[in-house]
Amino acid sequence: MKALVYEGVETLVFRDVPMVAARPGEHLIRIRASGICGSDMHAYLGHDARRPAPLILGHEAAGVIEDGPQKGRRVTINPLVTCGSCTACASGRENLCASRQIISMPPREGAFAQFVAMPDRNLVTVPDNVPLEKAALAEPLAVSWHAARLLLEALHPNTERHALVIGGGAIGLAAALALRAMGVKDVTIQEPNAARRAFLTDRCGQQAVAEFQGMVPLVVDAVGYAATRAAASACAAPGGVIAHVGLGEDIGGLDIRRMTLQEITFIGTYTYTAQDFRNTAQAIFDGRLGALDWPELRPLSEGAAAFHDLRSGAVAAPKIILSPWA
Predict the structure, then answer these.
(1) Who contacts 225 (Cβ-Cβ below 8 Å, separation ≥6)?
(2) pTM above 0.90, yes or no
(3) Which domains does the chain have, with CATH numbers?
């Protein structure tokens, strides 16, 4: 099969690789759409020790079951494979499973390939009227759905619900969409890139600004750098909540003294639970997250160029989706 292989820092090669083999209880899936995530970009830049070269990246995917009694079933893929039996899994917090695996990290190759193998419990059926390119957004949208849910659960019920999302990439936009779907009407996205800011406003119908002034009770840091954490801790109102999603860099930025004196809650959020993923997929199918027509579609064979364009800031769209069969 063909795959886009990460072979070293800023080096991706579209080439032949051995055909993936399905384990017992897994389905072989013909990938139709696979999105580029910020974590893929971190690996591409050599910033993620969890993703050593050579490796097939990609974990935001949808496709069609290739063989067996369910052949032809259209599915979107929850890429987080968990044990299903530990305390975390039994309590519905599968994202905290100590033995969790995710495709695009060893030992599981990713979805920038023509085929991938996944357990049945990781698959959600996609209705015939929903394009698979849209269904592939379930994974990044679920990340933000999970963060938005935890954010709102932690907020005092008597607090007005106004939100700031820092970062206008796919996760930031998805956080804004999730918050709106959960009833938060006043959501602002802070995005320094002028082209992306215009795209968010004109194409996605979002309220986007270069710099936010003031304080709000709900803040999402969808970037995760010291500077954005500093902005989050400055913009969170007393008694407010910060949900930290981005993994840009490890340390720095938070104003711990202010957060302590003003009782600001900080929540680290990672991926999603299985129920969050299913709820997000259903919200996509029901149209509650909008048209979702903002990704840019490219062939997987041109994936190296797509990563280069993202690296150089030349892409206004919050998401590029690659198709292995284009």
Answers:
(1) 246, 248, 249, 253
(2) yes
(3) 2-137+295-323 (3.90.180.10), 141-268 (3.40.50.720)
